[in-house]
Write a structure and sequence with these properties.
Layout (H helix, E strand, L loop, with lengths): L6 E3 L2 E3 L5 H25 L1 E3 L5 E3 L8 H11 L2 E3 L5 E3 L3 E4 L2 E4 L5 H22 L7 H17 L2 H4 L4 H18 L14 H8 L4 H17 L4 H5 L3
Parallel strand pairs: 1-3, 2-4
Antiparallel strand pairs: 5-6, 7-8
Helix pairs in contact: 3-4, 3-6, 4-6, 6-7
Length: about 240
């Protein structure tokens, strides 16, 4: 609720169609649905903030000419609201701090998370230097409590990313672990330490293994949940 006492609602219209006719029909249905909602919103003094609303048309990868044409139409879609405001379809979107594109791939998310993690590393890097005198367990605790949660946020959703995308997270983790264990490259001590040696010194599992173990625990809990709808999610 803003200063004027008006509530702002976010509306996401998702259209996942295969032909140009169906894509346009999906937008028409969305506009009709919003028109019905406007009657209810006006009754209760609710306003849709169109400046923060996004239109995403999910699609399949382009494999033939018909899908190529439908993908072009989907990216040029415009959703018109009853008050005359419009929003255009986007290729990339963000929902609850999760970045994705119209193919439901999380490559934008990996790039955004790495950028955010680098900013967090820049802020805590003075604590990880050798001159600080902090012990190795303390530095590793800083990584586990402050930096790794930035990477692993909402991981059950994007855990199925490609190996190349996961490798970006692992490279970032190995860079931090080398700093925490004082095994990074030093001109005064030009000696290379393998990644295996770094993980042995840190005594933690690689990020992909850590996420796989955590995801397995979550799936086990959901599979034994008393709610039947929750249990069906694991099927």
């Amino acid at each position: 609720m803003n200063e004027n006492g008006q509530r702002n609602f976010f509306v996401e219209i998702y259209s996942c169609k295969s032909t140009i006719r169906d894509v346009k029909a999906g937008v028409a249905q969305g506009e009709a649905h919003i028109s019905r909602l406007y009657v209810y919103y006006q009754k209760w003094g609710i306003r849709i903030n169109t400046s923060k609303s996004e239109l995403v048309s999910f699609r399949r990868p382009v494999t033939n000419n018909s899908r190529c044409r439908s993908a072009a139409v989907a990216r040029n879609l415009v959703l018109t609201f009853p008050d005359g405001s419009r929003i255009r379809a986007k290729k990339n979107a963000k929902y609850l701090e999760i970045h994705f594109n119209d193919l439901l791939c999380f490559n934008p998310h990996s790039k955004a998370v790495i950028t955010k993690a680098n900013i967090a590393l820049y802020r805590v890097h003075p604590l990880l230097k050798k001159k600080t005198g902090l012990s190795k367990p303390t530095k590793l605790l800083i990584y586990k409590q402050l930096l790794r949660p930035v990477i692993t946020y909402s991981f059950p959703i994007w855990f199925t990313i490609s190996k190349n995308a996961m490798e970006k997270f692992k490279v970032f983790e190995k860079k931090i672990l080398r700093i925490c264990t004082n095994l990074q490259f030093d001109r005064k001590r030009p000696k290379h330490y393998s990644n295996r040696r770094v993980y042995e010194e840190a005594e933690i599992k690689p990020l992909d293994q850590f996420l796989a173990q955590a995801a397995s625990k979550i799936i086990t809990k959901v599979a034994s949940h008393p709610n039947q709808l929750m249990r069906r999610m694991t099927n």
